[in-house]
Specification:
The protein has 627 residues and is α+β, with helices and mostly antiparallel strands. It contains 15 helices and 23 strands.
Length: 627
């Protein structure tokens, strides 16, 4: 401990000696402000004790390797000291410390430190002194950068002396000027965040539109990173290392969700190679950030060149690949891909010009407002793609509204395809269960009593889904109700129904099992491509013919059987057999046969719990047993 104290005392004595050795700067009209440009005693090293160099101005950079620590010392003397004198020191360095008369008066480091982009000044109060009294000033710069004039750490106007209030106003004016220069980028970032939020809401409303999710991720990735770069030039949020990683992540990783957007927009599935490239884009900024900080700690110009080169090689595969992909999809007839070509061509062109042409688009001013090539690229991209997204959303919304209207109409028609009440059949008990799928299908059943005391029973399934299937089912039921009044046999009913459907030319087809049960429990039946019924757990032989509506010249065979007391006849649609669980296994005929002796409701519930994929219709007819 004593040795450490002794070392500090020696360092302070040497420090005071160096300050005294510096030449005196005579400052006149200090109410100025006045720029302190030298002469300076310049030394390198942590202790500040070395071989000083006396320079008339600020030190110039020589080579790419800069010292980690720079000391600049001078002595000023004021002819007319202002009230509350102060210095405004605006270095370009990771951090700085300012000493006044051998005492540290100000410092900035860590999250509140300075960097090469912000170049924000630190206010250093000076003691109130009499005219002509000298003040020693020492400035310690940690990892200084090269300023635009080629100086190390400080340039012309970076050390000002004046009244503290005046200097505070100057610093505020500089911040405001810098902010207005970045206002277009700020508004662009806010627009990206708002646009991303809107797209997330649209995706929550319709989860099928994955392009909304991917583009929202792109905007929410680019927007905050760009906004951070705005603060980096006004008031830094991160130290230099964090800022480099943040910028690289925003500039490179943003292309990963953009790839997902391209695939979703053009309805193309992403393969494992493209998915791997997405992961490369996400992880590459972390690797580049470490390499950048390790190899180029002291030269900001070298860091900038390294970053630009890294961006070029990281973005080039996406730029070329995205355009080739869109042109390829367009040539294949994908009109959605053609809509994106102008946006990507314009944005990628501006981006490549900014990365490859020296000086192009680095800073473009419009009055007080400024742009760089990345801002221009993003602006042109969003402006050109916004109409495409709006028109696409309008078209999809229209199609969705039309589909919803058709679905509502189909559901209303479907409700009429099944009877609300079942008639009584002498000597028999009839039950029915109907469970429509999420997507409207065309299952129907009818139980129609006739004048001769018999009852017509029909179970059918219309091919297809939606409004068209529901309309065909309604046509079939209307014809069945008309034919039931004519006391025709089941084969004749199917023949006449087939003629009606062929004549209607609605397209598609209808399978139907038709039976007529007499008062004496004699059952006649005919089948038009429908599933055969089950009698007491055994499949009834019911040879099928062509479904209805395919050909006008079809003859349907009629068969008979007698239901004995206690017999159960089960009629059902293919929605039972084709029920499918999560692993892809079908409910199948064996399970159906095994359950065919149960009630209609039990069979339908079991098939639905297994995994419903289509409408489920079950009708059971049981002859009463003798008492």
């Amino acid at each position: 401990m004593r040795i450490a104290r002794l070392f500090v005392c020696v360092a302070m004595i040497a420090f005071g000696a160096r300050c005294a050795a510096a030449q005196v700067v005579e400052v006149r009209n200090a109410a100025g402000p006045v720029a302190i440009t030298g002469p300076w005693l310049v030394e390198e090293g942590e202790s500040g004790i070395g071989n000083p160099r006396e320079l008339a101005g600020f030190p110039k950079a020589s080579g790419t390797k800069l010292p980690a620590v720079f000391w600049l010392r001078t002595t000023i003397r004021l002819d007319e000291p202002p009230a509350s004198p102060a210095l405004l020191v605006s270095p370009i360095a990771d951090s700085c410390a300012v000493f006044v008369n051998g005492v540290q008066a100000a410092q900035c480091r860590g999250l509140l430190g300075l960097n090469g982009l912000a170049h924000r000044g630190v206010l250093v109060p000076l003691p109130n002194i009499a005219a002509g009294q000298p003040i020693s000033i020492a400035i310690r710069l940690l990892r200084p950068r090269v300023v635009a004039s080629g100086n190390v750490g400080l340039g012309l106007g970076d050390v000002l002396l004046a009244n503290e209030h005046t200097l505070a106003e100057i610093r505020t004016a500089r911040d405001a000027e810098r902010f207005f220069g970045l206002l277009p980028q700020t508004l662009l970032c806010i627009g990206e965040l708002l646009g991303g939020t809107v797209l997330l809401v649209l995706f929550a409303y319709d989860r099928r539109r994955r392009e909304y999710l991917w583009f929202a991720l792109f905007l929410w990735l680019d927007g905050p990173c760009s906004l951070e770069s705005v603060f980096e030039r006004v008031y830094p949020l991160f130290p230099v290392g964090g800022a480099v990683w943040f910028d690289l992540f925003g500039l490179i990783a943003r292309y990963a969700p953009l790839i997902g957007f391209l695939a979703a927009f053009t309805n193309v599935r992403v393969n494992r190679w493209i998915r791997g490239y997405q992961w490369v884009l996400v992880t590459l900024p972390l690797i580049l950030g470490m390499v950048t900080l390790e190899q180029h700690q002291n030269s900001w110009s070298a860091v900038s060149s390294w970053i630009v080169g890294s961006l070029l090689w990281a973005q080039l595969p996406f730029v070329i690949g995205s355009l080739l992909f869109l042109f390829w999809q367009w040539r294949k007839g994908n009109t959605e891909a053609a809509l994106l070509i102008p946006s990507f061509l314009l944005a990628n062109g501006v981006e490549m010009l900014g990365l490859t042409v020296p000086g192009w688009g680095r800073h473009i001013s419009f009055g007080r407002f400024g742009w760089d090539f990345d801002d221009l690229s993003m602006f042109f991209f969003l402006v050109s793609i916004a109409p495409v997204m709006i028109v696409r959303h309008w078209r999809i919304t229209k199609e969705h509204a039309r589909a919803t209207a058709e679905l509502d109409a189909a559901r209303e028609i479907q409700q009429r395809l099944v009877p609300t009440r079942l008639p009584e059949i002498a000597g028999c008990r009839i039950e029915a269960a109907y469970m429509p799928a999420d997507e409207v299908g065309g299952d129907f059943y009818q139980v129609l009593p006739r004048a001769d005391g018999s009852t017509l029973i029909a179970v059918g399934d219309v091919s297809g889904k939606g409004l068209k299937a529901a309309m065909t089912g309604a046509l079939a039921i209307g014809a069945l109700r008309t034919l039931a009044a004519e006391s025709l046999g089941p084969a004749a009913v199917l023949t006449r129904l087939n003629e009606e459907l062929v004549r209607a030319q609605n397209g598609g087809f209808v399978t139907c099992f038709c039976a007529v049960i007499a008062p004496d429990s004699m059952l006649r039946f005919a089948n038009a491509g429908h599933l055969a019924p089950y009698r007491n757990g055994t499949e009834v032989e019911a040879p099928g013919a062509l479904p209805l509506g395919l050909s006008p010249d079809v003859l349907y065979a009629e068969q008979t059987l007698r239901l004995e007391p206690g017999d159960r006849l089960t009629l059902l649609s293919d929605g039972v057999v084709e029920a499918q669980n999560a692993s892809g296994e079908l409910f199948g005929f064996e399970r159906t046969r095994g359950m065919s002796r149960q009630t209609a409701q039990a069979i339908a519930e079991r098939a639905r719990s297994f995994g419903q994929a289509d409408d489920i219709t079950v009708v059971t007819l049981e002859r009463a047993a003798f008492a």
